[in-house]
Design a protein that fits this description.
By secondary structure, the chain is α/β, with parallel strands linked by helices. It has three domains: about 80 residues, Chorismate Mutase Domain, subunit A (Up-down Bundle); about 80 residues, 3-Layer(aba) Sandwich (D-Maltodextrin-Binding Protein, domain 2), CATH 3.40.190; about 90 residues, Alpha-Beta Plaits, CATH 3.30.70.260. The protein contains twelve helices and 16 strands. The strands form three sheets. Strands 1, 2, 3, 4, 5, 11 and 16 form a seven-stranded mixed beta sheet that branches. Strands 8-7-9-6-10 form a five-stranded mixed beta sheet. α11 runs antiparallel to α12.
Length: about 350
């Protein structure tokens, strides 16, 4: 037997043992779930999860393997949470729009084993999460070409939800029309304002009139239902297939690097991650915002982004969103948060996460 065959034999033996231990572990998780159900305890306990991760890391003898083992344990903890939510019939994710929309693609990619709830708008996604109708919500946050989705920032400020993760999805916008329709016949193009903005150069160059619609997939559905050859939609290739439309022109983005950043919202505040984000307000004293910004830098933190949004109910006052490199578990971060509390009127920790890409 060659060394490769010997190594593969060892791997096969270990895999069989892992499968047996996996079943044993999930059986124990089922017993824990029964206790949680009886005592009305949540599936996710951030403090307990961190204890389990650190305890398991301490068992590892090879220090060089710890980063990989941390990732392995965290993934396994996530699987256990998904298993518990499935047993409780809580394995549901919500998104706004319709099947075929980019939010639909993101939701199916991130939660392939979950049931999807389709909502009318972003606010309904937040309400489903808050009311326990969905464990998570998937919402577009900003686009690399068209900028932020301001409404989502306002909803994060309004509701008690936390960001569980942030993922980038490469976007390919397409012009969809009825079968047999030529580009010369199209006069008006329907889509979400962000999509219209992303494809503004193509629309201008072809003399097409943009018309805002609630959602890219819903725009495609409307074009299919009206059977009007003068109408087209900007949407995904999946929408063309779903609604029986022809992909008239592919890849009409103004930018070839077009990417939409999606957030996953949930009720729990995760503690793991290399980045965290905050919402805060400051008083109108001269230089107060500058003091807060200086405070972040003076304490050794890199601020990746800052955005301001008007407060809807208070004219000429604003709240601020910041993304900061760092871990919520570090003492330095806790010191920063305490300092910010002392200098801000309000402070909300939105979430902690690692930036990833949807494949």
């Amino acid at each position: 037997m060659s060394k490769l065959d010997e190594a593969r034999s060892t791997v096969n033996r270990i895999d069989a043992e892992i499968a047996r231990l996996f079943e044993e572990r999930l059986a124990a998780v089922g017993d824990i779930l029964a206790y949680k159900r009886e005592n009305r305890l949540p599936v996710f306990d951030a403090a307990r999860e961190q204890q389990v991760i650190e305890k398991n890391l301490a068992l590892l003898q090879n220090e060089e393997l710890k980063p990989y083992y941390r990732q392995f344990i965290q993934s396994f903890m996530d699987i256990c949470k998904d298993y518990q939510r499935a047993e409780l019939k809580q394995n549901t994710v919500a998104f706004a729009g319709a099947e075929g929309a980019f939010a639909s693609q993101a939701a199916h990619s991130l939660f392939p084993n979950y049931t999807c709830n389709i909502c009318e708008d972003f606010e309904q996604v937040f309400l489903q999460v808050i009311n326990g109708e969905a464990a998570f919500g998937v919402i577009p946050f900003e686009n690399s070409y068209a900028g932020e989705v301001g409404e989502v920032f306002d909803l994060l400020f309004k509701y008690s939800c936390h960001i569980q993760g942030i993922w980038d999805l490469p976007i390919r916008q397409n012009l969809l029309a009825l079968p047999g329709v030529k580009l010369s016949e199209v006069q008006t193009v329907l889509s979400h304002p962000q999509a219209l903005n992303q494809c503004a150069r193509f629309l201008h160059d072809n003399g097409l009139k943009p018309m805002a619609y609630a959602n890219t997939a819903l725009a495609a559905q409307y074009v299919a239902e009206t059977q009007d050859p003068s109408l087209a939609a900007i949407a995904s290739a999946e929408s063309a297939e779903l609604y029986g439309l022809n992909l008239l022109v592919a890849d009409i983005n103004s930018s070839t690097a077009n990417t939409t950043r999606f957030i996953v919202i949930g009720q729990d505040l995760p503690l793991t991650g290399s980045r965290f984000n905050l919402l805060f307000t400051v008083n109108h004293h001269a230089g107060q915002l500058a003091r807060v910004m200086s405070l972040i830098g003076d304490l050794g933190f890199n601020m990746e982004s800052i955005k301001s949004r008007p407060m809807k109910d208070i004219p000429w006052q604003y709240y601020f969103y910041v993304e900061i490199e760092g871990s919520l578990q570090d003492d330095a971060t806790q010191n920063l948060l305490q300092a910010l509390k002392n200098n801000c009127d309000t402070l909300k920790i939105l979430g902690s996460y690692d930036l990833q890409q949807i494949k």
